[in-house]
Amino acid sequence: MSIPTAAERAIRRQIARHGAITFSEYMARALYGPGGYYSRHNAGADYYTSPQVHPAFGALLTVHLFHLWTLLDRPRPFTILEPGAGNGLLCGDILATAAYLPDGFHEAVRYIACDLRAMSGRERGEAQTHRIVADALRLPLRGGIGCVISNELLDALPVHRVRMESSNLRELYVDVESDVADGYEGQLVERVREPSTPLLERRLVELGIELSEGQTAEICLLLEDWALSVASVLDRGFALTIDYGRSAVDLYDPGQRPHGTLVTYRAHRQTDSPLEETGRQDITAQVDFTSAQSAGERAGLITVGNVAQGAYLSRLGLQALRRNHSPPDQPASGWITLPVGPNGLPPDSLPEPVIPSSDDGRDWLTGLTHLARPGGLGDFRVLVQAKGVPTEPATAALHWLDGQPASHGYSPAELAAMIPACVLRLGPEHFRFG
Ligand SMILES: C[S@@+](CC[C@H](N)C(=O)[O-])C[C@H]1O[C@@H](n2cnc3c(N)ncnc32)[C@H](O)[C@@H]1O
Question: What domain range includes position 313?
Answer without folding.
Answer: 50-156+227-243+294-424
